[in-house]
Amino acid sequence: RVAAEGAIVRYIHPGSRLGVLLEVNCETDFVAAGDVFTQLAGELAMVVASSEVVCVSVDDMPGDMLSKEREVEMGKEDLKSKPEAVRAKIVEGRLEKIKRAYALLEQPALRDNNKTVAEIIKEAIAATGENIQVRRFVKYNLGEGLEKRSNDFAAEVAQQTAKKAEAPAPNKEEPKQEQQAPAQAKPVVQVSAGLVKQLRDKSGAGMMDCKKALGECGGDVEAAVEWLRKKGLSSADKKAGRLAAEGGIVAYIHPGSRLGVLLEVNCETDFVAAGDVFNRLANTVAMQIAANPSLEYVSSEEVPAEVLAREKEIEMGREDLQSKPEAIRAKIADGRVKKLAQERVLLEQPYLLDESKTVSEAVKEAIASCGENIQIRRFNRFVLGEGVEKKVSNLAEEVAAATGAKA
Questions:
Q1: Minimal CA–CA distance to 103: which of 61, 40, 43, 47?
Q2: Residue 78 per-residue DSSP state
Q3: Which of 199, 230, 203, 232 is nearest to 215 (CA)?
Q4: Angle 42-48-54 (CA atoms, 0-180°, nearest 5)?
Q5: Rounded (to 5) percent helix, strand, coil in the chain
Q6: How far apart are CA 273 and CA 283, in angstroms?
Q7: Taking the CB of residue 354, how many other CB atoms lie within 10 A of it?
Q8: pLDDT by residue (tens digit) across 106-132?
């Protein structure tokens, strides 16, 4: 029977270094709100967190992963002396065992290690009278795939000392005898404290540097940001290049458990990860993802070239552009594609707590505030039952069908 109701559940391990987002389906919201279902869903999320599972069932194991495992098994030393047909048979047996190790339904249940997850789901089906299915899950381990930096303070000091020793002494110029004409002084620009604060939030530079930049740029904040960057004084941009492999996994489940988000945000140290600035940013961004169904990518660099090419082809074929010259059509199409891409990119969205700035600018402000690089690495968004065809119930027809069947 069709199971399109249910719940999106989360599990965040203490310390926020591991997180799971899981969708479990049943037939009605009545069962989804019951103890049997909610206890089962919570247990399944913890099983995912505590194991190495990558798929729901053995049939769902990714083909590329299966091919890689087959290649590894075929090349093992203990099979080299066996006939090809025998080797293949042994390998297929080993692959079945590997598939069971990676499939959630084949794992031991937490409540009773003598039962599998598939068996406790069947027990829940019997108890509730409804079909229950695990549809999908995603699991994040903080910083997986990122190369962590090991700090060696003594080595850093020695390196900096060596650099200073190697630096050539500046040549002293002889004082010039003839007097030069005095340079024309720039008009003094009055810089308000509000403008200085605004520039500090945007750039992460020091107060006096911000004041000087605004004075040089006539009070224009955007021009002052560029001035600071050219002078190498924009600390947020400097910090954005540093490795961030700490941070936190955060989750947001919307009331009703029909929508959920799993998000990884990185910083440089666990000290900053435990702070208010970092956590406020991470939790706000998670809610922002939940509120925007069009988001697919963190940054514009992640948008695949084939997606942009396809969208441009669609725009070039639109009726309102057919009468325009080719060069103008291409320019308009590029602009539209850029706008479409921005709608799918998280960092380009207006920030949930202050729509006068983007998420990217909010991240830079957090970098300036805490003094560390912060990066939004990845996210997943689950909507309950998306893609599942829901059944429209007609009670009178069901009763008539059941009565007819008995007759």
A1: 61
A2: G
A3: 199
A4: 145
A5: 50, 15, 35
A6: 12
A7: 12
A8: 999 999 999 999 999 999 999 999 999
